[in-house]
Amino acid sequence: MKKVLAAACLLAFSTAYAAQEPEAVFNRACTMCHSGQLPMAPKKGDQAAWNPRLEQGTEVLVKHVTEGFNAMPARGLCMDCSAEDYKAVIAWMSK
């Protein structure tokens, strides 16, 4: 029992969390393109546009944001975002 509890605690403390609220990141850095102004950028909540992207996997999407992809600038205009912040905002935008 002690081993199971220790493993659960270790897992809980090793999980990385987004440091910033996804909605705040979206409003500050993503809304310019992901609110419909750029037709190639999937709108927040447009699951038909997000599903093919999500099928590529979160790591690919985070790489695209970090490095830039097509018209998206590197870091998606969020210079203080971590990979976990990007994962959180992608999940938030795609719902």
Give a verbal description of the structure.
This protein is mainly alpha-helical and 95 residues long. It has one domain (17-93): Orthogonal Bundle (Cytochrome Bc1 Complex, Chain D, domain 2). The protein has helices spanning 2-14, 22-34, 47-54, 58-67, 83-93. The chain is globular.
Gross geometry: globular
Could you give the count of β-strands?
0
Q: At the first level of CATH, what is the class?
A: Mainly Alpha
Mean pLDDT comes to 86
Order of helices and strands: HHHHH
Strand content: under 5%
Number of helices: 5
Secondary structure: helix percent? 55-70%
Superfamily at the CATH H level? Cytochrome c-like domain
The class by helix and strand makeup works out as mainly alpha
How would a textbook summarize the main sheet?
none
Straight-line N-to-C gap: 38 Å
CATH architecture descriptor: Orthogonal Bundle
Integer-rounded radius of gyration = 16 Å
- CATH level-3 fold name: Cytochrome Bc1 Complex, Chain D, domain 2
List unreliable stretches of 5+ residues.
1-15
Q: What is the number of independent domains?
A: 1
Keywords:
single chain; 95 residues; mainly alpha; Cytochrome Bc1 Complex, Chain D, domain 2
Summary, kept brief:
This protein is an all-alpha fold. It is built from five helices and no strands. Mean pLDDT is 86; it is low at 1-15.
Set down the secondary structure blueprint.
Elements: H1 2-14, H2 22-34, H3 47-54, H4 58-67, H5 83-93
Helix pairs in contact: 2-5, 4-5
